Amino acid sequence: MVAAEGILTSHGGKTSHAAVIARGMGTPCVCGVESFRIDAAKKEVRVEGTDTVLHEGDMISIDGAQGIVVLGAVPLVSAELSGDLETILSWADDIRRDASFGHLVGVRANADNPEDAKLSRELGAEAIGLCRTEHMFLGDRKQIIQTFILTDEPDVRQHALADLLSVQTKDFLEMFREMDGKNVIVRLLDPPLHEFLDDPRALEVEIARAEAQGATAEELAPKRALLRRIDGMIESNPMLGLRGVRLSIVFPDLPLMQVRAIASAAATLKAQGLDPRPEIMVPLVSMTSELAQLRSVIERVIDDVERENTVELDIPIGTMIELPRACVTANEIAQHADFFSFGTNDLTQTTFGFSRDDAESKFIPIYLHRHVLESNPFETIDDGVVSLVKMAVDRGRSTNPKLDLGVCGEHGGDPRSIKKLYKAGVDYVSCSPYRVPIARLAAAQAKLSDR
Question: Is 408 a catalytic residue?
């Protein structure tokens, strides 16, 4: 995805994982072109119902905003903020920040690297509302996290952790330097570990080919052992499995490493006279004890870094609210949190009992056509989900009046959702960088319409 100029898939929808990540990267993306029949082996695409066949090297143009795919190249222009638009956005910012129009509402951006952070600031984001650390483990670093996951040797695992600590510290140094004086919420590792591993079916094919070419059992033994390890980590429902805070409790070395990297980067920049403002977010919390236990670990690591560097660090610790139970028990969880950030993508999935990618490709279009749903709940937040957000806002503030409350799901860039979330009482919304100007305008409109 990092190398791609554009992304086109035959499955999924506008809020599928591929679309969300592409939007954050500013990469044009069209998901769910079901008429495409992709043959990866032949490197060609057939368009069902036509004679059109696309081959490797053919040029196509895609419009991610309208879901249009064009054969051949079309003229392009770069989007920019200028003239009247910049003036209107400045008026919107004045309204957002004016308490006389209602409670203040900020606009942050979801950014995972310094380039996106810089772009976010240029487009008017006031802070980073979500920095996903899992994206920092891709590319050349994937081998390091694979070694950590798959090895049984303590020395090898510790060496992998040391390598991860080094690259993570560098990542955070760059992010915090780019956002000097601005808050950066860093989410600890969230996805299941098997997502960082090789495709087991591809490995299976590799073994079969080697066997057909005469490889001995001894030669194939390491690959077969690797296949067994990977298969053993596959979960029936990974979205509800070993991920988020559960991952940090089962593999405690991971949060220790990440928190040390965050705190060390902040300490280094403070020593240079800069003003780093990291915040640490624990994902997928459903029980108060999960956050309480992990918070004590995080605070202990921060204390260690402060002593080692003779520096005082102020790093708020909060959680991502994305499960109904967390909303219901928000008054208890808030006693151990400095902030809540609502992950409305997963909160929508778990409230409805939907699998986002499956729902958008299988039945949501039919539900919309037959008016079972008025709108796609992954594009515009559902009123039932808003009720859970409002419950968590009210219950959280009842035990922690200073609790900072934000939204970091893709709903944070949708105008209709922003209006609903403002009424629910959130302090800010966070969205993909390219949706920041829309969010700035929509937040001001939400305040005016609520007067």
Answer: yes
